[in-house]
Specification:
This protein has about 260 residues and is mainly β. It is about 15% helix and about 35% strand. It contains two helices and 15 strands. The strands form three sheets. Strands 1, 2, 3, 4, 12, 13, 14 and 15 form an eight-stranded antiparallel β-sheet that branches. A four-stranded antiparallel β-sheet has the order 7-6-5-11, with no helix packed on it. The protein has a three-stranded antiparallel β-sheet with strand order 8-9-10, with no helix packed on it. The protein is globular, with a radius of gyration of 24 Å. The termini are far apart. The relative contact order is 0.18.
């Protein structure tokens, strides 16, 4: 007669050492997967200011795709740079109107998010609160007017829909004419660089401000990725360590919003 197969209870028990090894292997594999996802594919960012209103608000949590522009030494999303030298691997140029995350040129460390306005070789200028690219005014149309509260108290704002020369259309916001950056000289964008602006035109330190005090021209190797979607959003004041504040400050209307 054939002997019965051993039941599961008859299998030899695992030692504590082998179970610990399995746990360590699982953790290592999980960390490797997270590393690949963060370095090569996706990276989350939190919007820290109002410089991209009315399209991005402080407290929005967005996802940036790394492959959109290729990879450079600054695009890892980690405290250390990738060993890629100068330039970019699998480089793809951003399109005019993209919302891009990049490393601030003056320190190559701080993450900034702005919209790509000027491409290499472009001439960009603000005249009487109107954007000009290569000597031509950019189309815009006022949509509405309102008020916002900031450090200076309630202020009147104007929202307009702007359409870039390539047809990319999006909303902008400003405090009306007379702002410090509403009239500028001509900015000539060098080869391998990009001119960035915030959508909140009178409340954005961007390429209109020289590199030593602002952003200046952004080298292509400083590009990190393209902002694609708002995953979720909280009003300022929500705290990770205070779950009650999550529900008091949540903005569900902004969840899963595709970015223009």
């Amino acid at each position: 007669m054939k002997a019965p197969s051993p039941t599961r209870s008859e299998e030899p028990p695992r030692s504590a050492g082998s179970e610990t090894l399995e746990v360590i292997k699982t953790v290592v594999f999980a960390l490797l997967i997270a590393f690949v996802l963060r370095v090569m594919l996706f990276q989350p960012f939190t919007i820290p200011s109002a410089s991209m209103e009315p399209n991005l608000y402080e407290g929005d949590y967005i996802v940036v795709t790394k492959w959109s522009y290729g990879y450079s030494k600054y695009s890892s999303g980690l405290p250390v740079n990738l060993p890629l030298g100068e330039g970019r691997l699998f480089n793809t140029a951003p399109k005019r109107g993209d919302i891009a995350v990049f490393k601030l040129p003056r320190d190559n460390k701080t993450d900034y998010i702005k919209r790509v306005i000027g491409l290499p070789g472009d001439r960009v200028q603000m005249i009487a609160n109107k954007l000009y690219i290569n000597g031509q005014p950019v189309q815009d149309a006022i949509v509405d007017e309102g008020q916002v509260a900031d450090a200076f108290g309630p202020r009147s704002i104007v929202r307009a829909r702007e359409t870039l020369p390539n047809g990319k259309s999006f909303m902008t916001q400003d405090f009306g004419p007379g702002g410090d950056l509403d009239d500028t000289g001509v900015y000539e964008v060098p080869a391998g660089h990009y001119f960035m602006m915030g959508d909140n035109r009178d409340n954005s330190i961007d390429s209109r401000v020289a590199e030593y005090a602002g952003v200046g021209m952004v080298p292509e190797q400083n590009l990190v990725g393209k902002a694609q979607i708002i995953m979720f959003s909280w009003e300022p004041g929500a705290s990770l360590f205070n779950p009650v504040s999550w529900f008091a400050n949540i903005r569900p209307s902004r969840f899963f919003r595709i970015l223009d």
